[in-house]
User: Fold this.
Amino acid sequence: MSTTSFSTKVLLVVICALVSIIVATGAGILTHTTGASLAEAVLSAGGAFAVSMGLSLTTLAALGFV
Assistant:
């Protein structure tokens, strides 16, 4: 059984979301600078956010934090 408190779990999920936002912003900027349209850059950023968030939450779950 995990001894991690609820507030710590919430904080870890918020940190994962913020890191995922940073990754998504970088992916969107990189996509847009290659000449892609704004819509393509937003879709790329959304995909990067989803993958980053999923990977980070899966990692936390495997470590037993969430």
The two ends are 11 Å apart (CA to CA). The mean pLDDT is 94. Helices lie at 6-33, 38-63. The CA atoms of residues 17 and 66 lie 14 Å apart.
